[in-house]
Specification:
Layout (H helix, E strand, L loop, with lengths): L27 H9 L2 E2 L1 H9 L6 H16 L4 E5 L3 E6 L4 E7 H4 L10 E3 L3
Parallel strand pairs: 1-4, 2-5
Antiparallel strand pairs: 2-3, 3-4
Amino acid sequence: MDPRIQSLHRPLSIPKKQPLAKKANVPFQQFLHGAKEIKVSKHAMDRLQERKIEISEKTWSKIGEKMIEARKKGVDQSLVVLKEAALVVSSKNRTVVTAMDREETQSQIFTNINGTIFVNE
C-alpha cells in the first residue's frame, strides 16, 4: 500500500465571469431618499393610530438618518425617544416594531435593545 495521501477529488472548475447587468443611473438624492425609508410594521401602525400619535415628515426623516448612524455603529434594536412618543425600531431591517406615547413609557421596561436614539424635533 502506498503511504502517500492520494487526491480523491477533481479540481473545481472556475466559473466563467458573466457580464454585469447595467445599473440604471439613479440620482444620488433619490438613492439617499430610498436609503432613509422606514417601514412601519402592522403592529406599530395599529399602535400609532390607536394612541393618536402623529409624527411629522421632518421627524421621520431624522429618525431615518439616526437609524442609518445606529446601524453603522452595530446597533440592531433601538429605542427612539421623541417628545411625544417612544418607538422600538429595528435598525437592521429599518422597521418600526412598536410605538407608545410618553406617558406609557414611564412604567415600561425595554428589553433586547442595544441602543437609544433621542430625537428632539
